[in-house]
Design a protein that fits this description.
Structural class: alpha+beta
Largest sheet: 6 strands, antiparallel, barrel
Helix content: 25-40%
Order of helices and strands: EEEEEEEHEEEEEHEHEHHHHHHHHHHH
Number of strands: 14
Number of domains: 3
Shape: globular
């Protein structure tokens, strides 16, 4: 589905099918889904703060669902209450199907393309042969790849081609080749669940190419086993806003942390690991990739994201207790036994979390696991941990005595770069790479995330 879509037609609410209003649906990756009506809907459903569905039919008879719409504005000429215009914005739209309720958006399969995917795959698809009076180029469509990362999820990599256009007096020939992920679940599921898996896959590619990656050209297939086979095979086009330009920068394989040819043999295992770690480490992934995808972050936001992500990583992968539980319980019992009875309940509440590791202790253990980024970029581990701790505590807890010790301006960016490199290395390690390989990837890197600068 190309950027900048326009569909003219008639539109109505599922609760009021007879009240059809002419208007135009427009879509772009940057601006999202918008509906401009020559009139307006008179229904309380449009006031639902959770959003509502709008159904439509294009002038060519195509069914359309505008999903999770919200009223934006209206204009009514004086003395003409039935005239005027109204506009709506929406979370997404489905071309080719009607979903009366938001819960009805159930799919069996979703296919999507991604920027940089073909550059990351580096498949050998063209054979060039020089001849005496010209040359020949042979294109071979690669066979699809199939994976089953975890039970219930089937994942394929498929390929499409378009062109070339051949005719009389042709002097310029071109064609396009694109790879796409095809995601199928064992049970038909709501589109929102597919979005979660799509995000997890785009994050995997973003980790490899060191750049934001978003899904484009999204298509879906409905679970219709008893329907007309031709209808069952019809693809539903999904208009999924990106709120940014889909234009991809040129990234060469040597600019990536790792590419498909370098991990081809172990890619199925890495993919399985990536999905298996999803539930336990999702907050870590969200914080790390949330910073990577933010084009214009405040330095403080990036810094706090990374600190919280490392804290969360430590809590979910390492021991969360400083001393053995039995030893700590005995210590607390002894302290409470000597405290005044009237303060015992208050003191017990304060001591309930006293065996949890501090931020400095968590940073130390994580750096002990993977010291390379801090050693290479900051030198002294102790001084780095102190600066991070004091800055985080001042920003979060506002402890005035720490004002002079807290880092500011470009110094916060320096801390963030080291924390980001450390966190990036930990995420790659959790994907399934030994830390020695992670270190080599980061040492030879040519590109750094723009968010670090």
């Amino acid at each position: 589905m190309p950027d900048n879509v326009k569909e003219e037609g008639y539109w109505w609410l599922p609760q009021d099918v007879e009240a059809r209003v002419p208007g135009t649906l427009s879509f772009s990756y940057r601006d999202g889904v918008r509906l401009e009506l020559l009139g307006k809907f008179e229904n309380d459903a449009t006031r639902d703060p959770r959003g509502f569905n709008i159904l439509g039919e294009s002038t060519f008879g195509k069914p359309i669902t505008i999903y999770q719409a919200f009223f934006e504005a209206s204009q009514t000429p004086g003395g003409q209450p039935t005239a005027g215009k109204s506009s709506y914005i929406a979370n997404k739209a489905f071309l080719g199907v009607h979903f009366s309720k938001m819960d009805d958006a159930i799919f069996k399969t979703i296919a999507f393309q991604m920027p940089y995917f073909d550059a990351w795959l580096q498949l050998d698809i063209l054979d060039y042969q020089q001849q005496e009076r010209g040359f020949t180029i042979t294109y071979t469509l690669p066979p699809p790849m199939a994976f089953e990362p975890v039970e219930g999820i089937s994942l394929k990599v498929g390929f499409t081609t378009e062109g070339p256009a051949i005719g009389y007096a042709v002097t310029d020939v071109s064609f396009t080749h694109r790879a796409a992920f095809i995601l199928e679940l064992s049970e038909p599921s709501h589109f929102n669940l597919f979005v979660e898996y799509i995000s997890h896959l785009t994050n995997l590619l973003a980790l490899a190419v060191v750049a934001p990656v978003r899904p484009i050209e999204v298509q879906g297939w409905l679970p219709r086993p008893d329907a007309d086979p031709r209808a069952a095979m019809a693809a539903i086009q999904v208009l999924l806003p990106l709120y940014t330009s889909p234009k991809e920068d040129e990234i060469h394989f040597f600019d990536m942390l790792f590419s498909y040819p370098s991990i081809k043999d172990k890619f199925p295992a890495l993919l399985t690991n990536w999905f298996q770690k999803r539930e336990a480490l999702q907050p870590v992934f969200d914080l790390f990739f949330g910073a990577l995808y933010n084009p214009n972050p405040y330095p403080v936001t990036t810094f706090l994201n990374y600190v919280q992500a490392i804290e969360t990583y430590h809590i979910r992968t390492m021991s969360n207790e400083v001393d053995p539980p039995d030893l700590h319980r005995e210590r607390v019992r002894a302290i409470l036994a000597t405290s005044p009875a009237e303060h015992r309940s208050w003191l017990a509440d304060k001591l309930s979390f006293s065996n949890r590791a501090t931020l400095a202790q968590r940073l130390q253990e994580v750096i002990d696991l993977y010291p390379f980024p801090v050693t290479a970029q900051a030198g002294s581990h102790g001084a780095f941990i102190t600066r991070v701790r004091d800055t985080r505590n001042y920003l979060t807890h506002y402890d005035p005595p720490l004002a002079e010790k807290a880092q500011k301006g470009g110094y916060i960016k320096g801390l963030s770069m080291t924390l980001g490199t450390l966190l990036e290395g930990l995420v790659i390690h959790e994907l399934g790479f030994p830390l020695d390989e992670v270190r080599q990837m980061q040492r030879k890197r040519r590109r750094f995330p723009a968010v670090w600068f």
